Amino acid sequence: MKHRYLPMTEQDQQQMLEAVGVSSIDELFQDIPESVRFKGEYSIKPAASESALLKEMTRLAAKNADLKQNTSFLGAGVYDHYIPTIVDHVISRSEFYTAYTPYQPEISQGELQAIFEFQTMFCELTGMDVANSSMYDGGTAIAEAAMLSTGHTRRKKILISKAVHPETRDVVKTYAKGQYIEVVEIPYADGITDLEALANLASEDIAGVIVQYPNFFGRIEPLKEIEQIVHEQKAMLIVSSNPAALGALTPPGKFGADIVAGDAQPFGIPSAFGGPHCGYFAVTSKLMRKVPGRLVGQTVDEDGKRGFVLTLQAREQHIRRDKATSNICSNQALNALAASVAMTALGKKGVKEMSTRNIQKAHYAKKRMKAAGLDVVFEGPSFNEFVVKLNKPVSEINKLLLQKGIIGGYDLGRSYPELEDHMLIAVTELRTKEEIDTFVAELGDGHE
Amino acid sequence: MNNQEQDQPLIFELSTPGRIGFSLPDLEIEELSLESILPAEYIREEEAELPEVSELDIMRHYTALSRRNHGVDSGFYPLGSCTMKYNPKINEAVARFNGFAHIHPLQEESTVQGALELMYDLQEHLIEITGMDEVTLQPAAGAHGEWTGLMMIRAFHEANGDTERTKVIVPDSAHGTNPASATVAGFETVTVKSNDQGLVDLEDLRRVVGPDTAALMLTNPNTLGLFEENILEMAEIVHGAGGKLYYDGANLNAVLSKARPGDMGFDVVHLNLHKTFTGPHGGGGPGSGPVGVKKELIPFLPAPIVAKKDDQYILDYDRPQSIGRVKPYYGNFGINVRAYTYIRTMGPDGLKAVTEYAVLNANYMMRRLAEYYDLPFDRHCKHEFVLSGRRQKKLGVRTLDIAKRLLDFGYHPPTIYFPLNVEECIMIEPTETESKETLDSFIDAMIQIAKEAEENPEIVQEAPHTTVIKRLDETLAARKPVLRYAKAEK
Ligand SMILES: Cc1ncc(COP(=O)(O)O)c(C=O)c1O
Description:
The structure holds 2 protein chains of 2 kinds. Chain A is α/β, with parallel strands linked by helices.
């Protein structure tokens, strides 16, 4: 068998078999019971040459309508933002992407330092004391936050706002089932968490309350009021937050959040059909030893030189096994690196400017929609998304939009039966005035 | 002193007010102040202290960091249990195609037929490779797959009214995620002992199995690199008691085309696409941990699954007994694209050769090193093997020292101190993509270190001598945690 990834020559094979003291490779597999030994080859597609495969994959990719050729107003948790070109150049350095978890700090200082910087940036953005090195994604990060709160408070009930991403809520429910934890949904009113309902549901037996900021409808939740209700019950305030919004919005830490988690996708990570993205997880210092996943800390070497190591590992599965704070092992390191590079490129001024432009452009689009006679609902302070009620099914309208090269908004009826014909529209800093105006005109036409 | 040896400042320390590294599109519309759009309480007062640097500053910074990092492309990386094989560049190219990298998960199905087709075809390939009946691509990594699989096993038992099955059995050689995942799935963990041949002790298994057994989790070959040759008896014992058999696929590189989990009697299996199927490892992730199941468990798979209906690929959400979602959207698609590209690059004959060469490489190294290090289990290994450093320990040289000394030779050390049931464990996995010359050089280094341990132990005990930094004070890091940069007070 000759293959460009397999350096074994016949001569190598002969010498190695001799050194092992067997006459064939087959002999090395005699410990597999005869009755379960797989004979022959898998019935799968034959190997393709490099050029043939590139052609085939190019064709397959071309069957998808991508966000580069079309203009997207689809968000709902995954956003089309500016990705500095430099991001892909950095993460393509194979010293990063062909390494694994930095278990050997002497030859992994690059990765460790990059993570340490990532942790710092997320502390800054969220206003929290400690951030970990990454989680799988926003959904599982929030589920882990819920688990942390039940473990910490020794209570068995979680409240979650219905204005939290529906797929995040689903993931929280699956994790909760695993832990025999009850999950109760808080209704929304006028596009934000219903505070009265929250006050009624909040009781001494709740471990944590999960809200999203900005929420799934794009609205900015009144964290100040929510915080009071939650902490009155000595429960934990868990905020799922789009970090791109935090360049301009008051960070959840300022409002007294106990855990802030979410997805770093808006910073330098392509949508990639929903993954891989990059969860982040930030807490107050008193929860430091309960954090799931890897943490990088600063220390010194034998000569007193600054260096970085994986630390507080007594929380983790490889030490604590069934008593670990989480089962996570591999995380999303390379995407955390991408997010770090994007946050570095944006820097202090850029994160604020990008965030602000999302607010300004979405505000402009909203105004234009209203002027065109479209029914904008759930009005109030919002980030880069808002909801429009249409008089036709969203999927029908989206089909027409696609013919004009526009990927329309999210059909809220898919996860909220009461919001049939409601479209969730995202307007990021990338959308030009012309694109917005065209979209408004098309929606207005479809509306009539 | 070359560049690499100099300290690289933190990016925050390189910051200079007034520099920028970005280029945002123009606003084009009238610039309204935030104050005119939002209530004051929502407007951030203090700016997030992110760095202010130019694009070249950034590139130099990360280039410097990358030079302080060892990857498979830098040199040999025989990290046992992690399958650090070559990461093909075509995978990277394909995953970056606009039609894969820049599509939104909530687009209409008709606009992502290419992506769904790829996922469907990958599911089909993994079904054949594992010998299972259906596969979900949703889990993000191995541990996530373990938990997903155990949740399905729990749902299966509960659907049968079998609510007393609260225990999951794991061997003492199991990876830490196995018991941790069992806990997250609501189970209690019971440990089964290994015997003196490094295999699960059947007597002990019979003792711990019972009406409260939900499942046995097994890695096969196990984490010692040994094939559990009593697998059929074990399956009989567990199934006989009404439990399920779970396959941790971290070591699938050892048995491609040689034995399929489905044929060995396993009911659920997770794969680590970032290992066997060339992920890459990304400095710690992202991974992908698809889970395959036998027929009886199909109803419990997380929704949605990609299905084919007439000529269209669809996301099938109609799964009333599903355990629910384990992840937003459909898994780490970008990693799945790479794995698919790899499988298509290798083909059936290529995948068979992968395992044959991986196993031959491991056995070759094991035999050549057996004279210099203790070999706790003297039999053919599969794709990896363990040595024990107890002979060197008696000379005052610990396995940790040996690992650190290997750094001086330019190698990433093997996995050490795992599995837990071998004293001073050294776990070596060469993989099939390494040449005999590379293996020989590494073996020579290991032999030299064994000699140094006898003749000049200090050189090993004080290693590494050539790295950018010496051994770090981990106790200090944990006792006084500094987990973020803070500007020094002026
Ligand atoms: C045997 C074994 N099981 C499970 C895992 C966990 O996989 P992951 O890190 O992808 O979660 C690993 C990986 O480190 C492993 O080696």
